[in-house]
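Dear colleagues,

I hope this message finds you well. In preparation for our joint manuscript, I am sending the Cyanate hydratase (Thalassospira lohafexi) sequence together with its predicted structure, so that both groups work from identical material. I would be grateful if you could confirm receipt.
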Amino acid sequence: MKKVDVKELILEAKKAKGLGWEEIASKIGMSPVWTTSVCLGMNSAPKEKADMLVAALDLPAEASAVLQECPMKIWDQAVPTDPAVYRIYEIMGVYGETLKELVHEKFGDGIMSAIDYEMYIERKADPKGDRVVVTLDGKFLPYRAW
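The corresponding structure tokens are as follows:
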């Protein structure tokens, strides 16, 4: 069994049980973003959380070991065509250099960690149409000189 197989089993179980990512995350005591990322194969889960996920979704027992494997964090290098994913790609294309400049101005030469990191997705009511609020919360890692 491979990560892609477990991903398909999870998506099928999620649909069959009528669950949302927030509900699945609450069943294992983790954030919706982290849980979704694990379920889609882009992160690994500690044994305890993998076992809880397997139990919550009635997955085969061998799925736990697969969920614990360190993933190969690669993705399609082509421009995404799914509209929701493309918008995030477009935002980074338009504002990526701006974000880099502002981070460097506030923190110095370095990067924002995507390892010591949290992300939150919120819905904000607005009379002109609800808004999507994405918070990227990563530790600053300065480059060092040697």
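For the figure legend, we might mention the following. The longest strand covers residues 110-124. The radius of gyration is 18 Å.

With kind regards,
E.M.
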